Amino acid sequence: MNIRQADISDAQAMARIHVDCWKQAYEGILPEDLLRSLSYEDRAKRWEENIEEATSGGSMIYVAEDPELGVIGFVLGGTMRDATMRMRYTGEIYGIYVWPRYQRMGIGRALFEKMAAFLDAIHHARAGVWILADHPDRPFFEKLGAEEVYKKNEKVRDADHVTLAYGIEDLSAFAEDTSSGA
């Protein structure tokens, strides 16, 4: 498996992964009509428009690419967008998506480590990540040592949801793992 910077040719694969991950993770959590409305075509157009913008100015997207299967996951991150969190966590993991059938194989961790190295290299010593409290993959971040540091209520299609912020205190530890080939 190779982890590399995303480019415009990855938009279709990223769209499929993004939609499939959302439908799996948020089934029974987010409104069914919202999940049904997600389409590969719409998401691909959005990625085509946003990949160049998302890989400049302090943000980055990496893809995990299998030599036979193509792109099977991606991570995006950059500068923390939330002003309250930014006081302590200047970096942010905006999202990690691994095609459901390839989850729990170390791909998400490898993507996380690559992003941690990028954020550390641009002087973000700490990072945060936002996730719905009901999201089934919260333990992924907890296993990486992230701790819940903040919560807020958000509305999604008129339904209240609790969103949690997890803080990662030392990105350099992950950056060192990446540079040593671990």
Structural account:
The structure is a single chain. With 182 residues, the protein is of the alpha+beta class. The protein has a single domain, classed as Aminopeptidase (3-Layer(aba) Sandwich), CATH 3.40.630.30. 38% of the residues lie in helices and 30% in strands. It is built from 7 helices and 7 strands, in the order βαααββαβαβαββα. The protein has helices spanning 11-25, 32-37, 40-54, 83-86, 107-121, 138-143, 171-179, and strands at 2-5, 60-66, 70-79, 91-98, 127-132, 147-156, 159-168. It has a 7-stranded mixed β-sheet. Strand 2 (60-66) and strand 3 (70-79) form a beta hairpin. Helix 5 packs across helix 7. It is globular. The model has no long low-confidence stretch (mean pLDDT 91). GO terms for molecular function: acyltransferase activity, transferring groups other than amino-acyl groups. Keywords: Acyltransferase, Transferase. Residues 1-169 form the N-acetyltransferase domain. This is L-amino acid N-acyltransferase YncA.
Secondary structure layout:
Blueprint: E1 2-5, H1 11-25, H2 32-37, H3 40-54, E2 60-66, E3 70-79, H4 83-86, E4 91-98, H5 107-121, E5 127-132, H6 138-143, E6 147-156, E7 159-168, H7 171-179
Parallel strand pairs: 4-5
Antiparallel strand pairs: 1-2, 2-3, 3-4, 5-7, 6-7
Helix pairs in contact: 1-3, 5-7
GO molecular function: acyltransferase activity, transferring groups other than amino-acyl groups
Keywords: Acyltransferase, Transferase
Protein name: L-amino acid N-acyltransferase YncA
| Approximate strand percentage | 25-35%
Count of helices? 7
Side-by-side strand order of the widest sheet:
1-2-3-4-5-7-6
In total, how many beta strands? 7
Q: List low-confidence stretches.
A: none
Structural class: alpha+beta
| Domain tally | 1
CATH third-tier fold name: Aminopeptidase
Query: Ends: how far apart?
Result: 14 Å
Shape: globular
Q: What's the helical proportion of residues?
A: 25-40%
**So, the CATH homologous superfamily?**
Gcn5-related N-acetyltransferase (GNAT)
Protein name: L-amino acid N-acyltransferase YncA
Keywords: Acyltransferase, Transferase
Pfam family, one: Acetyltransf_1
Domain N-acetyltransferase: 1-169
